[in-house]
Amino acid sequence: MVATRTGSYRPPVMGTTHAVSTGHYLASAAGMRILESGGNAIDAGVAAGICLNVLLPEMCGFGGVAPIMVYIAEEDRVVSLNGVGTWPRKASVDYFMSEHGGIIPSGMPRVVVPVAAGAWLTALEMWGTKSFAEIVESALGLARDGFVLHFTGEAGMAGVVEASKDWPSSMKVFAPAGRSIRFGERFTQPDLATTFEKLIAAEKSQSSISREAGIRAARAEFYRGGIGEQIAQFVQREGGLLDQDDMANFEVEVENTVAGSFGEYEIVACGPWSQGPVLAETLQILRPDDFRGVEHNSVEYIHLVTEALKLAFADRDAFVGDPKFVDVPIDGLTSAEFAKARRAEIDPNRAAPEMPMHGNPWRFEGRSQPDSWRYEHPSALPVAAEMDTSYACAVDRWGNAFSATPSDGAGGSPIVPGLGFVPSNRGAQSWLDKRHPSAVEGGKRPRLTPNPAIAFRDGKLMMPFGTPGGDSQPQSMTQVFLNMAVNGMNVQAAVEAPRFQSASFPNSFYPHSYRPGVLQLEGAIDSHVADGLSKLGHRVEWIQTYDAGTGAVCAVDAGQGDGVMSAGADMRRESYAIGR
Q1: Contact at 8 Å (CB) between 413 and 386?
Q2: Residue 11 CB partners (closer than 8 Å, separation 6+)
Q3: Strand ranges across the sheet with 77-81
Q4: Which of 89, 156, 301, 369 could be a cystine partner for 442, CB 3.0 to 4.6 Å?
Q5: Distance between CA atoms of 423 and 112, rounded to whole angstroms?
Q6: Is the peptide bond preceding residue 511 cis, with omega within 30 degrees of 0?
C-alpha cells in the first residue's frame, strides 16, 4: 500500500471541542453558533440544514427531502430518519401513462409529500436539546434580512428562473426585477421567513408543557394545520395529486441502517429507500489488500474502483427500492460473501462495456428469487441528467455526530404562494416501468439519491461525511474515504483530490440517462492515466478540474485520538468547515 499525501488549497480545520462542515459558509457559521452556545451535534446540524434551505434554494428546500443520520455516543448507536416523502395515494404508473403521455413531467405531477421540515423537527425533538425557535434563528434572519448571493447561487438561480418561467409564484421570489438575482446582490425570502414565524408560534403554544411538545406542535402545523392545508390546496389547484390526507397521514420514521466493512473500518449508510447500499456494497467489494503497491489515481486504481462501483450500481438498479413495497434482499446485498462473489467478476484488464448484470443476492440469504421480482436490464439512454442537493455534518464535545443531505431544488416545482418554498419534487426519481423496484406507486417512496453516512474505525467514531451530486454521491464518498483510509490523506486533502465518475448505469433522475462505458475524469488527472484507461475499454470524457458535478464532500474526522478532530470542506462549491 502506497501512502500518499497530496497538497490542498485549504488547511484542515482542527479542534478539540466541536466542529461543523456544510455546503455553505453561513450555514456552517450558524451550526458553530449553536455548538458554542452549548447545543449538541443534532442541534447544530438541524440549524445548519435549515440555513442551507434558505441559502441554497436552487439545491435544497424546506419542503424538500432531508435524510438524516445520527450517532448517539452515550448509547453507541447509529439511527436514521428516512427524510423522503411518499407518492400521493392516487399516484400510479397507469396515471402517468394515461394523463401525461408516459412521462413524469416537471411541476406538480411529480410532487410527493414534503418532508424536510418534518425531518428537521423530528431529529430536534428526539435527539436535540434546544427549541425550534433557538435553532431556526439564523435561518429566519437570512430569509427575512437576506444574504449576498454567491457564485454557485448565481449560476443555480439562473437555471431556476429558466425552469420557472411559467410559475408566477417562483418568479416573484427568484426574479423580482424580471431577471434572476446576480452575484453580489442581496436575496431575501420574506414568505419563507413568515413560515418560520408561524412554526415558532405553533411551538410556543405548547412549549410550556415541554420542549418536545412545542416541537411536535410545530410539526403538526406543517402537516395537519394551516401550512399543510396551503400546500395541499396549491398542489391540487395546479394539477398535482397530493391532498390534505396525504399530508396529514405522513410520519417521519426512524429507519434501519445498512453497513459495509473495509478492513478495520465500518461504513454505516441509509437503507434501501436510498442509494446508501451502493456505498456499503462498493467498499465491501473493494479490499485493503487491493491497494497494496497501487498508486493513488493510477490506471489500476481508477479502473478497480470504477468497476466495483459499476457492480454496486447494477445491484442498485435491480433490487433497491422502498422496502415497504419491495422485497429488497438487503442482507444479501450487504453480505461479505456476496461482495466476494461480485469482486471475482472484475476483470483487471478490461472495463465492463456497459452496466454489468446484477448479482444474485437471494442465495446469500438462503432463499430463491421471489416470483414478484421481474426486473429487466436497461438499454442505453444518452440524455442530460439533473442535479441538486447540499450537505451538513457536525461532531460535538460529547462525541455525538450528525450527518444529513437535504435536497430538492426550486427548479422542479413551483413555490407555494405565501410559504416561500417548493413542495418536494422527488417523484423525479421514480420509474414508469412496473417491473422496476422504484416504479411509481401510491404511498411508496421514490428511491432517494441523497445518502449521508457515518464511518467508524475499530468500533469508534471516525467521521460523518456526505455530499451533493445525485449519482456521483456514493462515487465521491467512496473516493474520499479511500483517500483517507488507504492513501493517508488528511480530511481536507482527501476532499480536494482529483475525482472520477462513471455514467455507465441509469441515472436516478427521470428520464434516467444511461451512457454505457462512460468514465469522466477531472482535469487534474494525468493524461497518461486517461490513455491507459481508454486502452482498458473505458470511454473517457474530460470534465473541468474541481467540477461541481462530482459533488462537494464535507466531513469531520473525529477519529484521530486524544480528542483531536479535523474538518474538511470541498472547494468545488461554497462549502466551509469551522471547529474549535
Answers
A1: no
A2: 492
A3: 254-255, 77-81, 68-72, 401-404, 392-395, 19-22, 576-579
A4: 89
A5: 7
A6: yes
Residue with cell 478539540: 16
190-206 vs 226-237: helix crossing angle, rounded to 10:
140
**pLDDT, tens digit only, all 580 positions of the chain:** 333 335 789 999 999 999 999 999 999 999 999 999 999 999 999 999 999 999 999 999 999 999 999 999 999 999 999 999 999 999 999 999 999 999 999 999 999 999 999 999 999 999 999 999 999 999 999 999 999 999 888 988 999 999 999 999 999 999 999 999 999 999 999 999 999 999 999 999 999 999 999 999 999 999 999 999 999 999 999 999 999 999 999 999 999 999 999 999 999 999 999 999 999 999 999 999 999 999 999 999 999 999 999 999 999 999 999 999 999 999 999 999 999 999 999 999 999 999 999 999 999 999 999 988 999 999 988 876 655 799 999 999 999 999 999 999 999 999 999 999 999 999 999 999 999 999 999 999 999 999 999 999 999 999 999 999 999 999 999 999 999 999 999 999 999 999 999 999 999 999 999 999 999 999 999 999 999 999 999 999 999 999 999 999 999 999 988 889 999 999 999 999 999 9
Domain ranges of the chain: 20-63+88-251+408-423
187 forms beta bridges with 147
Residue 91 near residue 440 (C-beta atoms within 8 A): yes
Q: Measuring CA to CA, which residue among 576, 574, 578 is closest to residue 150?
A: 574
Which CA distances in Å does 297 have to 261, 497, 529? 22, 9, 8
